[in-house]
Amino acid sequence: MTGPLRRRLALVWLGLLAAGAFATPWLPLPDPAALDAAHRLAPPGWWRAPFLGTDPLGRDLLARCLAGARVSLVVGLLATAVALVVGVPWGAVAGLAGGRTDRTMMRLADALDSVPLVVVVLFLLSLFQGHEETLAAFGIGRLQFFFVAVGFLFWIPTARLARAETLRLARRPFLDAARAAGSPPQRTLARHVLPNLLPVTGVMLVLTLPRVVLMEAFLSFLGLGVEPPRVSWGILAAEGLGALNPLVDSWWLIVVPGAFLTLTLWALDGLRPAGAPRSSWRSRPRKTEEESVGSPTAARREG
């Protein structure tokens, strides 16, 4: 499929999904939490209700998938924002400072990146459970803590990309002029580096968002993310897998939420700029000249 056509289809799907997710209360659909024992495990009606079938408790699966889309998209956007807020300044400071500061900051990021993601999530959730009452006093619940934790998982690839772009900007004449004029590093960072990182920040947003959505679904599927009564695609897939029975044909319980997640990831990946790397849980940008070991430019910056 060609790039422009795929991008248009991706925008159409994301627009319909966002509209349906946030307009669910006003759509002619049952309440996602409403039980209906008379219509348990009803197959998809496609052109009549229930359009995508019901679950073992009689809840409408289309309504629950749209409610799950609302949670998944909100968590994805907020967690991506957290990753950008943490990663972009970190990478910019490391790239601008250079030398020992750069090496220390990025080695610390590498050390954190070497820890398995599930271990990090379990550690952060244990911290939340130990201080749940204190955080609740500040209006921070499990969902808010969850998207902060997921964002924390993805700030490191963002920091690497921001550092690489800062190293490229460091060769530009306007930064040499700022240094020659006696501009302090904080002013140079705030007025010259960070504003010029806005275009690459948009690329980081597009690359990070599908990874965050997939991670949220994965953690919720394992029971480490969003908790009932809230709904997410990961929870729906876990419920569908648990309800599968060789004696009862209920394939839609896992196919429908899986299709919503797959189409959304496909659409988000279709928004990538041409030439940008494909989404992955841990992506490392290609080394630039400044990052290459033993390069003359690296030697000059570290000196």
Short précis:
The chain has helices spanning 3-22, 61-97, 99-113, 117-130, 132-137, 142-153, 155-169, 173-180, 185-196, 198-221, 233-243, 252-270, 296-302. By secondary structure, the protein is an all-alpha fold.
Number of strands: 0
Number of domains: 1
N/C terminus separation: 49 Å
**How would you sum up the major sheet?**
none
- Helix tally? 13
Key terms for this structure?
single chain, mainly alpha, MetI-like fold, 303 residues, 13 helices, disordered C terminus
What does this structure look like?
With 303 residues, the protein is an all-alpha fold. The protein has a single domain, classed as MetI-like (MetI-like fold, Orthogonal Bundle). The chain contains 13 helices and no strands. Helix 2 crosses helix 9. The longest helix is centred in the first third of the chain and has 37 residues. The radius of gyration is 23 Å and the shape is elongated. The termini are far apart. The C terminus is likely disordered.
